[in-house]
Amino acid sequence: MSSVQSLAPVRPNFLKLLLGSPIIGPVAALLIASIFFAVMSPRFLSGPNFSLILQQVMVVGVLAIGQTLIIITTGIDLSNGMVMALSGVLIASFAAQKGLNPFLAILIGLLVAMAFGLLNGGLVTGIGLPAFIVTLGTMNIAYALTRIYTTSTITNLPKELTFLGDTFNLGGTAIANGTILMLFLYAITWFVMKYTPAGRSVYAVGDNVEAARLAGINTKRVLLGVYTFAGLAYGIAALLQVARTGVGDPQAGQTSNLDSITAVVLGGTSLFGGRGSIVGTLIGALIVGVFRNGLQLLGVESTYQVLITGILVIAAVSVDQLTHRK
Amino acid sequence: MNFKRAAVLGLALALPLITACSSGTAAPSASTSGSGSASAEIVVGLITKTETNPFFVKMKEGAQAKATELGAKLLTGAGAKDGDNEGQVTAMENMINAGAKGILITPSDTKAIVPSIQKARAAGVVVIALDTATDPQDASDALFATDNFAAGTLIGQWAAKAMAGKTPVIATLDLAPGITVGAQRHNGFLQGMGLASGIAATSTDLATSKEVVCAQDTHGDQTEGQTAMENCLSKNADINLVYTINEPAAFGAYTALKNAGKEKNVTIVSVDGGCQGVQGVVDGKIAATSQQYPLKMASMGVEAIVKYAKDGTKPSGYTDTGVTLITDKAQAGVDSKDSTFGTANCWGNK
To answer: For residue B288, which phi and psi values (nearest 5 degrees)?
Structure first.
């Protein structure tokens, strides 16, 4: 990758643009996997099945939006699943058991999730603790708070809460409302990250926090913003989780932290920070979703799904390392 | 440079896909030619709590054998662990999408799974609960399960006779709060012992009596069973009768008793009738256990769904799949079979 060449003005060749894009790897992987499963199982290649995959991916997908931003800043968030569970339980409980207006209940859930995000960010910037340690702690705190609040699932939810799990008809295929919300969130985040100074400052902080600070970026404010925004994403994921399953489940989200990291990694974002693609994360989440769905259609035991996900993660990170040696 | 990246990732992807291929042919329920000529094939789904618990492995075997016999196709799925509702919801959606006419499920969370079951039934899919009832029970079309209250009653009645003349000092090693299976076995045991009466069979509250000096939760786990027994012995060293929710908990209790030098003076009773548990009866570790039949639950379930697919008869209500008391120290007035029968009919690895 010669820097001298890139200084000369060149008409962008579309093919070069595509191949040069950081997400070519994940896109190729998704295509190969999809073709494989389509060949092995006729039911794979159908509108209803694709809609199902999107639905099954939407909760982790939204969690992964927050995780992507945090990882770009060289942090990591282990608490997202537990914060989501707490938020979900609060939303369900306030709306179904305490008779609050459902939208007020949702607002409370979002605020609690954002509060945790702010707590994570505050500890990382204020005390300078590594994000891994901070979120390990808040993960356990959120886990315990959820179970102190309730240990049983909350049912009989008002229809406002299950709206995002309901479907509408598009050309004969049922599409869940929540998947539209997920795609919308990805689009907004992608735009902000690529085209706004706020977005670019996130990359700058992740690439070299000292250089960013010297360049005039308020690095503490950027990090606080990233973690709080991630908290908002976790609250939205909680609402999607509640809408999809129709219950407030204190047991939800126990593996979501690792699932969201898997999506981010498969999408080509480096755990060392400084670069990464939101769209890549969506592709990463879809890769996992496609594998799970495809393997289940083939009748393969879920233990093998876990095995294959593990192999995929190592493959993805290796490819990333091999092709980005500085 | 980036072309190279795509190519390397593609090659790296080949490995997991090859794994998928070979695991597809290894799993007995996989069809290697996609759904091929499956247009007339009836598809049945079985969703267990986990993939690895021998109880569920036996269920899958029973279901697969019946499905092969009736010419149906069996799809299987499970949660990642006991209590994983989301995993079971996902499996159910995928199976319905794959054309399943009916789904057999051992619900990990008996309340949380209900909305998903309602969605399935609204789509014309029959849902049968196996081993554990949904909450409420009529959320599923039918229930094929052990009468867990009867299972507890049998070991209670046996213990009452076996301990005749002695004052029972009882420890109960239970499952976890609010779960019907645990409560029913515990309450049945106390009722069979004659220490409690008139308990509603569907209650999830644990009954108690003055003879019960210690009650601890074990989540059906061997290590937790050992810790629970140790805690109970610290509380009261005179315990002479231990009720356990299942055989792993019983083995944990035995280890704790052995470490305290008390294993000869304490009677342990349990429920399950797994092959390892029956071996425990042979070895004198477990005095009596109520044996249940997961294979029957699954096989009857497959039969019911195939019948529904063929003539539209929906299964309904509760079907008792039977329970047998296994002990080598039979007591008069309590029906039981010996460990030889138990070994011949057990589930799990021998």
So the answer is: -155, 145
d(CA A314, CA A271): 13
| Residues in chain B closer than 8 A to A151 (CB atoms) | 177-178
CATH number of A46-323: 1.10.3470
Q: What is the pLDDT of residue A15?
A: 60
Nearest to A315 among B13, B80, B94 (CB): B13
- At residue B76, the 3 state secondary structure works out as strand
Reply yes or no on whether the pLDDT at A108 is more than 70.
Answer: yes
CA separation for the pair B256, A228 (Å, rounded)? 49
From chain A, pick out residues whose CB is under 8 angstroms from the CB of B19: 304, 307-308, 311
pLDDT range class, residue A19, cuts 50, 70, 90: low
Instruction: Give the residue extent of every domain in chain A.
Output: 46-323
Question: So where are chain B's domains?
Answer: 38-146+294-315, 148-291+324-344
For the segment B176-234, what is each residue's pLDDT rounded down to a tens digit? 877 778 899 999 999 999 999 888 877 878 899 999 999 999 988 888 899 999 999 98
Kindly report which listed range (A3-17, A50-64, A238-252, B162-176) carries the lowest average pLDDT score: A3-17
Contact criterion met (CB < 8 Å) for B13 and A312: yes
Q: Count CA atoms closer than 13 A to B95's CA, side-chain side.
A: 34
Domain B38-146+294-315 matches domain B148-291+324-344 at the CATH topology level:
yes
Q: What is the C-alpha to C-alpha distance for residues A234 and A249, in angstroms, rounded to an integer?
A: 15
Question: pLDDT for B56-84, tens place per residue?
Answer: 988 999 999 999 999 999 999 998 877 78
- Inform me whether the C-beta atom of residue A302 falls under 8 Å from chain B C-beta atoms: yes
Which CATH number is correct for B38-146+294-315, 3.40.50.11480, 3.40.1000.10, 3.40.50.300, 3.40.50.2300? 3.40.50.2300
Interface of B with A in 76-115 (CB under 8 A): 76-78, 80, 83-87, 89-91, 93-95, 97-99, 109, 111-112, 114-115
Q: Quick one: fold of B148-291+324-344?
A: Rossmann fold (3.40.50)
Main-chain phi, psi angles of A218, to 5 degrees: -80, 90
Residue A225 contacts residue A26 (beta carbons within 8 Å): no
CB contact under 8 Å between A151 and B177, yes or no, is yes
- Looking at residue A9, its pLDDT comes to 57
A32 contacts B13? CB cut-off 8 A:
yes
Q: Which residue of B83, B97, B112 is in closest CB contact with A48? A: B97
- Output the CA–CA distances (angstroms, integers) from residue B97 to A41, A94, A288, B311, in the order listed: 12, 34, 18, 22
